[in-house]
Amino acid sequence: MKLLAGGCRVYSPQDGQISTLGTCLERKVVSKSNGADRIMQTVNEYAPGISPAIVNPNAEEVLYVAAGEGVCWVNGFGHSVRPGCAVFVPPGAVYAIENAGPEPVRLVNVCCPEDPGRRVVERAPKGSGEAPKLTVHEDDREAIRAGQDRIFRYLIHTDLGCRQITQFAGWIPASKAPFHYHTYEEAIFILEGNGIVHVDEAECEFDAGSSIYFPVGVRHCVENPGNTTIKLLGAFYPSGSPGAAYEDE
């Protein structure tokens, strides 16, 4: 992990606290324990089978499927997921991941605010009636331009009932954005590509699998110096627009 100005942190794919819970191997990357304020990001791999059930009593959690296929159970309703799918887990909802195998299911999760009451619980009984709308696939979201050459797509947002977190996918072609800052706390996961994050006079390279943490108000920019588009997964707290950036006057 490299610490940059203002508390910005860049994590390699090997950084983070590793723990195992049933079929889930969790790598906790961004958290209060390493300098974040209210945002927690984990990278989880699920082996075949059904994971233990988790609940956040007070926090929202958003999940993104980076690899593999399976079912995300939320309060007893099964939601089929595949790469590019996002899932919203409301506060107090019980969720588990089922992987029919044989390949691992890899998720990138963000929980806001980090919930000290997070715990393992009994799996919820199968729900009856129509399942609530808690999932979306990135291909079904509109592409929105941010600046001259960058685009993003909302994933989990207010239309799915999420109030505290905005989750999005973004694509950055070869370019360097102007320095700017946001009024929210942000955690990014690099799905594809590599580049450089600049914070004031410092910089740090990143690759696919890296994570980047931006505290509120830190001046930064992300540069793509190569010929391959960067694809990133972002989540920020409190909710808002990924295109809302403020430049120095």
Tag the structure with descriptive keywords.
7-stranded antiparallel β-sheet, 249 residues, 25 strands, mainly beta, 8-stranded antiparallel β-sheet, single chain
Secondary structure elements and pairings:
Elements: E1 2-3, E2 9-11, E3 17-21, E4 24-30, E5 40-46, E6 49-50, E7 53-55, E8 60-67, E9 70-74, E10 77-81, E11 85-89, E12 94-99, E13 105-112, E14 119-121, E15 135-137, E16 144-146, E17 150-154, E18 166-172, E19 175-176, E20 185-192, E21 195-199, E22 202-206, E23 211-214, E24 221-224, E25 230-237
Antiparallel strand pairs: 1-2, 2-23, 3-4, 4-5, 5-13, 6-12, 7-12, 7-14, 8-11, 8-13, 9-10, 9-12, 11-15, 16-17, 17-18, 18-25, 19-24, 20-23, 20-25, 21-22, 21-24
Could you walk me through the main structural features you see in this protein, from its secondary elements to its overall organization?
- The chain has 249 residues and is mainly beta.
- The protein has strands at residues 2-3, 9-11, 17-21, 24-30, 40-46, 49-50, 53-55, 60-67, 70-74, 77-81, 85-89, 94-99, 105-112, 119-121, 135-137, 144-146, 150-154, 166-172, 175-176, 185-192, 195-199, 202-206, 211-214, 221-224, 230-237.
- It has an eight-stranded antiparallel β-sheet, with no helix packed on it.
- The radius of gyration is 17 Å and the shape is globular.
Low-confidence stretches: none
Question: Kindly state the mean pLDDT as a whole number?
Answer: 94
Largest sheet: 8 strands, antiparallel
Q: Could you say which structural class the secondary elements and strand pairing correspond to?
A: mainly beta
Strand coverage percent: over 45%
How are the strands ordered across the major sheet? 1-2-23-20-25-18-17-16
| CA-based shape | globular
Number of helices in the DSSP assignment:
0
SSE series: EEEEEEEEEEEEEEEEEEEEEEEEE
Q: First CA to last CA: what distance?
A: 32 Å
- How many beta-strand segments? 25
Amount of helix:
under 10%
Q: What is the C-alpha radius of gyration, as a whole number of Å?
A: 17 Å
